[in-house]
Amino acid sequence: MAIKLVTTVAELRKESARLLAEKGGSSQGLVPTMGALHSGHASLARTAVAENDVVVATIFVNPLQFGDAVDLDRYPRTLEADMALLDAEGVDLVFAPDVDEVYPGGQPLVRVTSGPLGEKWEGASRPGHFDGALTVVAKLLHYGLPGGPAADGTTAAYRAYFGQKDAQQLALVKRMVADLNFPVEIVPVPIVRSEDGLALSSRNRFLSDQEREAALVLSRALRLIESRANAHQPLDLDSAVALVDSQPLVELDYFDVVDPTTLEPLAENCKETPFRGEGLAIIAAKVGPVRLIDNIPLDS
Length: 300
Ligand code: AMP
What we know:
Keywords: ATP-binding, Cytoplasm, Ligase, Nucleotide-binding, Pantothenate biosynthesis
Subunit structure: Homodimer.
Number of domains: 2
Distance between the termini: 45 Å
Main location: cytoplasm
Oligomer: single chain
Bound molecules: adenosine monophosphate
Pfam family, one: Pantoate_ligase
Catalytic activity: (R)-pantoate + beta-alanine + ATP = (R)-pantothenate + AMP + diphosphate + H(+)
CATH architecture of the largest domain: 3-Layer(aba) Sandwich
């Protein structure tokens, strides 16, 4: 394996500087993850490797963003397989710190506040989730700064890769970076799905065969909305909601069409008027023990 594992911020900085110098590089990419990696994460890594000279992936299950201790405990940890997947994509460095390295004084007293954008949709059913997620993303974005200058002495470019799967997280990270002037470019990466349409997620492994089959209704309902948008028809969200509700194993939390940046509902476009413009259809549901989210961008 060419990939190297580091567990402290000091080692990460040192290795990043060494790699930039050794490769004569001028850019560094960061891929933050919680591990239990699948092809969705591989796509982030592949994109980062294609666009940067040095690529760092982070693996950290962040206690701050879990409301439920059981959910935190049972989050899958598969470091060896994760390293192999990242190595195959050409990632240079894995930063997998333990909790004390990231929160040496225990839980941080000062945190990033996600504000109103973090209180709706996922935030409504997971209070505090996005404050916890943004706080760790802020720290990871700092840790992942290029450890030294580009080979020509200028400041190395710095990019971080986030999946569109977590659309609200992506919108919030973009706002944090813009509002607080973080020196990093946020690069969105499209959702990777299995052949039958299910968006890949580390949590899919907790679905029984029957639940997995039922979960397909989420992507089907999103595709229905997408096809209406592409045909400039009214989106008729109600009938798509009825499709999801017809699946007894699926307990719908929300399903709406929103502005991709503000995540405010585009109510007008959903009812009688033919759809034109940009939007994001978002859905969340509980299938058996697992909460699933999915979305599809609309552009017509
Ligand atoms: P996680 O490990 O679940 O926190 O996810 C780490 C990153 O991978 C986040 O930016 C996710 O949005 C992204 N990601 C997770 N699943 C997918 C997927 N199916 N397609 C694309 N990106 C994904």
